[in-house]
């Protein structure tokens, strides 16, 4: 009888801290960022080694200007995935809050996070436009699966999926925001997102571990499989094939080269490493869905096998 009471107290205490932090360090991107400043075509948007084709034969064929342009388009593609998933997350958080007590700190923080995500989506959308790139829509299958997921998601899936996507974006943006050689606009967007997402990740991680511990075997098996699908589709769609067409490359050939590229595989495992550690410790990466984690290229000890499989 004491364990549930302690969990509820811990949940409220964590949410209270997150609400205080939000009050002290939240940003309005429309005010904080200089959207009128010109984008510098002489700068990369992300570090060259994080571009999906870095080190490949196709990369060597590109001029330096094309490489920088590709970095801007890939950044826009990642931001587009961020908008797509944040829209899903906002709907799932609203569903989470729907039949719960709005006077609780836990639900008040859910509302706070929804507000943050609204601003982040606008911020990402404005950045995409300023980078001279289109909004890179996910393919119809992924779009359909996103609709299904947001409708049928349970609590462990809501928070585990949020944690995964937030962690991979956070890793990339933490590196970007401190590199003074990169495009200032992308660095400014990254800095705001990192500060506010740190709270979101704490909220998601704590709630996932809390609800996961109370789930039975059938619910856990279902959640493992669906999360693996989320990981696979979110990760493999980070770079839209049209990014390659934007710099004059054949999208199919470039996508094949990226899948086989050990540098890109290393970047994926690096971006996902914290999320993978959390889910491994919780016993999530097992069963039929493990193969999807491997095919997504985010399991460091199996990335080579996945790259070899993609090459066949």
Strand element count: 0
Average pLDDT: 93
CATH architecture: Orthogonal Bundle
Span of the ends, CA to CA: 55 Å
Number of domains: 1
Q: Which structural class best describes the helix and strand composition?
A: mainly alpha
Taking the sheet with the most strands, its summary is: none
CATH topology: Ribonucleotide Reductase, subunit A
Element-by-element helix/strand order:
HHHHHHHHHHHHHH
The CATH superfamily is identified as: Ribonucleotide Reductase, subunit A
Strand-residue fraction? under 5%
Report low-confidence residues grouped into runs of 5 or more: 1-9
Bulk shape: globular
CATH class: Mainly Alpha
Tally of alpha and pi helices = 14
Give Rg in angstroms.
Answer: 20 Å
The share of residues in helices is over 70%
Protein name: Diiron oxygenase
Pfam family, one: AurF
GO molecular function, one term: oxidoreductase activity
Short description:
The radius of gyration is 20 Å and the shape is globular.
Structure description:
By secondary structure, the chain is mostly helical. It has a single domain (2-25, 45-311), classed as Orthogonal Bundle (Ribonucleotide Reductase, subunit A). The protein has helices spanning 2-24, 29-32, 57-61, 64-98, 105-130, 140-152, 155-177, 184-212, 217-236, 242-245, 251-260, 262-281, 290-296, 303-311. The longest helix has 35 residues, at 64-98. It is globular, with a radius of gyration of 20 Å.
Looking at this protein, list some descriptive labels.
Ribonucleotide Reductase, subunit A; oxidoreductase activity; Diiron oxygenase; RNR-like; Ferritin-like_SF; mainly alpha; 0% strand; disordered N terminus; AurF/CmlI
